[in-house]
Amino acid sequence: MAGKGLTIFGVTAGRLCLDFANTVEGRRTPTPRERVGAYAELVEWARQAGVLTAGEARALARRGRRRPASSAAVLRRARSFREALYRVVSATAGRRLPLVSDVITLDVALRQATVRSRLVAAADRFTWVPVEGPLGLDRPLWAVARSAAEVLASADLGSVRECLAPECGCLFLDTSRNRSRRWCDMAGCGNRAKARRYWARKRSMRVRSAGGKS
C-alpha cells in the first residue's frame, strides 16, 4: 500500500509502542512535524510496523475514506493516546512521576484492546490475536496499547532512553552491551552530533591558532 505521497516511517526504536510514540519528528523544536496527519497515514504506519497486513491496510483505508467523520475521530484518539504514551514513558525513563491523567488514558486504551483480542498459544509462547469480525477503524491502536503495557510492566522500561540530540527526543530501547547508546539513530542524529563536534573542534583550533599569532 505504500503509495506515492505516503510517508515512509522508521520502525527502529526496538518496541512497537516506542515507534508509534516517535511519529512526531523534532519534538524539541519550536515546530514539531506531525507524521500521521491523516487516517491513511496512521494505517500506513501500522502496515509498515507489521501491525496490519497489506490487505487489512487497504481495507481500512477504504473504510476510512467512506467514513471520514469516524476515521477522523479515531485519528484524534490515536494522537491523544500517543502523546500520553510519550509523556508516561519519557517521565518514567527519566525517573519522574507521570501524570495520572496520562496513565488513565493508557489504561483505557489497553482495556479496549484486550476486549477486542484473545490470547492464543503459539509454539512455545502466547500471543494476542484480534477477535474475528469486521475490521474496526481503531485496529492500528490495539497492538500498540498491548506493547505499551508490556514495556511499562517489564524490565524493558529501565532500558528506554530519550535521544540526546537537541532537536529530537525520540524514544528507543537501549540494547547496547554497556547501555551507553545516546542517539535514536546513528545514521541520523548520531552522525549530526559527530559533525557538530567535529566543526566545534575545528573552530576552537582556529581560535587558538589566531590567538597565538603575534
Task: Please outline what is shown here.
It contains seven helices and six strands, in the order αββααααββαββα.
Number of separate strands: 6
For the biggest β-sheet, the strand order reads 1-2
Rg over C-alpha atoms, rounded to the nearest angstrom: 20 Å
Strand proportion, as a percent range, falls in: 5-15%
> Helical proportion?
40-55%
Shape: globular
Spans where pLDDT lies below 50 across 5 or more residues? none
Assign the CATH class of the largest domain: Mainly Alpha
How would you portray this structure in words?
The protein is mainly alpha-helical. The chain has 2 domains: 16-182, Jann2411-like domain (Jann2411-like fold, Orthogonal Bundle), CATH 1.10.3300.10; 183-214. 52% of the residues lie in helices and 10% in strands. It has 7 helices and 6 strands, in the order H-E-E-H-H-H-H-E-E-H-E-E-H. The chain has a two-stranded antiparallel ribbon with strand order 1-2. A hairpin with a 2-residue loop joins strand 3 and strand 4 (125-130). Helix 3 (54-66) packs across helix 4 (68-93) and helix 5 (100-115) packs across helix 6. The termini are far apart. The model has no long low-confidence stretch (mean pLDDT 83).
